[in-house]
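QA checklist item 7 of 12: single-chain prediction sanity check.
[x] sequence parsed
[x] length recorded as 370
[x] structure emitted
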Amino acid sequence: MNISEEDNNNRSIINIKKEYVRWAYRLFLDREPENEEELNILYGDIKELKQIFLSSEEFIINNSSLLLSINNSTSMQSIIPPSPKKIPEQMLDEYTMKGIINILYQYFDDRSIYLKRVHNTVETYNTAFEQIDKGIFNFYGLEGMALIKAIEKYPIQDMNVIVWGLPGWGLPGCDCEAISLRKSARKVYLIQDNKPICDNNKIYVLNHEELSQSAIMADFAISYSTFEHDGLGRFGDPLTANGDLYAIKKAHKHLLNNGILFLGVPLGQDCIVWNGHRIYGKYRLPLLLKGWELLDIFDVNEKTTPEYPFDLELGSYIQNVLVLKKMDTDYPDDDILFKKIYSDSGHNPDTISMHEKINSYIYDYKSNCL
């Protein structure tokens, strides 16, 4: 077959790019590609190729000790590149559930957050307790009161509690663990890869690997403003389209039977705000709630419509607290999902319509996808 000079040049470029990909596997992942098809994946340029490999879950897991040992911010940021400004094209289908999930862009580079190890002193906790008593929260604003209300109804006194930090080496604050202490938890397991120093003998700090290798089983878990970030790369974590689903599955694993998870994630129209967070609605929320029964919802915002908050403008959301009970099955029986919730049934009367709406989303998912 005769090949024109132009075609020959184009073919050379493609072959060189294949070699770049092959060597990326060798240098960053210490292995060969699974098959030749992996070499046909198109990358925009060398910078994007490096970003994908250096932020991959496989690279970070295999080099976690190296990454955690680096304390210099310049060195760390040069090793873990920022998340791509846009979702890599080869990952679009996974992130958007084959085009169902909308995409907006609001870019963050918060890798530097994990570079300083936080030290929560006795004074830090005493100050936090005073703020909690006044309804003031470091990171959550007024919506933090929803968690307080949930814990008051579902008390954690003398119980063991797992508190989930942000993905990867995210920011360890002094809110959820302080709230747990203030509400008289027996033990608080704070899960954070950049492990803070906590001057309180009821707090046990573990990274995610240590938790996975442990036999810890808790009565309660708290994840507020964490899972929606997993897998987006904002905090230097690997790009993983289902990072949120993996994270909540781990929470499920470390709860006792019928254990309770207080979950705070953005609720609204389904959306990825790249690379900041996910917003959960009709399509993504049932996946996140797999293995859980929704017991209650606590919200401090004033609802405006029967469809609230799932009719908010695209990109807008509320972040309240879902009270979830661990189940042995994927989803509740239909009679639970269809059951009419009355104001005197023990559920929070302010969020009954939202509760029923979420149950209807779960039923629709069960009917169409299972």
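[x] summary fact logged: The chain has 14 helices and 14 strands.
[ ] second reviewer sign-off
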